[in-house]
Amino acid sequence: MQNETTPQPTRRRRMATVVLLATAFLYGNYLMGAAVGVVYVLMAGTLLFLFGRALNVSGRARKIRLAVLALIAGPVVFGMAFPAKVHPGFQSVIDGRLIEQVVSAELVKVFHSDAAFRNLRVSTTRGQALTVTISGSVPTRDDLQRLRAQFTRERLLVVLHHLHWDVELRDTGESVRGFDPDLFPPSQPAGLNVMQQD
């Protein structure tokens, strides 16, 4: 019985294709999110497919197809690599995505630094501005105030312009819901202005 194995060049091409598509997704996701990562994969996959079809012909036809594809692929690849160069509006989206990632990572780090904050989660919503919501529960009101004091010390409130709280106080069952300036007015930095009883 004949031993069937995948030819080495074919295996290498497949591996290179997988690596290229994975890189396209990761880069698109890093720039503007998972949806853009999927679009990058589709675009990269289409170009690879067309180049593969062009290589299956020979002679003058191959040269013509490859030349046309190269002319098409050049601007496409440039636009994928540097979207802000193609349209300046993309830069604000990229900057917002970067700020979102940095803020989320910093908040998670704070939550892991103290056992009282371990039941907290962070989520973000991007519209005209980035809204950061902290949800979950803390043992007491003092713990919540201590958490916000830590935000102040680490200057996180400087970048959290739209910080929203949805936190339960486990000792009393009370819920703290609302935007940070409403809950913590500048004249009352340590107190809570809005409390809702569950």
Structure report:
By secondary structure, the protein is an alpha+beta fold. It has two domains: 8-87; 91-197, no CATH class. It contains seven helices and five strands, in the order αααααββαββαβ. It has helices at residues 8-32, 34-55, 60-81, 83-86, 89-112, 141-153, 180-183, and strands at 120-126, 130-138, 162-169, 174-179, 196-197. The protein has a five-stranded mixed beta sheet with strand order 1-2-3-4-5. β1 and β2 form a beta hairpin. Residues 189-198 have low confidence and may be disordered.
Apparent shape = elongated
Uncertain stretches = 189-198
Strand content: 15-25%
What structural category do the secondary elements indicate? Answer: alpha+beta
End-to-end Cα distance = 73 Å
Quantity of strands, as a count: 5
Record the strand order, biggest sheet.
1-2-3-4-5
- State the order of secondary-structure elements, H for helix, E for strand: HHHHHEEHEEHE
How would you characterize the largest beta sheet?
5 strands, mixed
Number of domains: 2
pLDDT averaged residue by residue:
82
Number of helical stretches of at least 4 residues: 7
Give the radius of gyration.
26 Å
- Helix content class: 55-70%
Structure characteristics:
198 residues, alpha+beta, 2 domains, 5-stranded mixed β-sheet, 7 helices, 58% helix, disordered C terminus
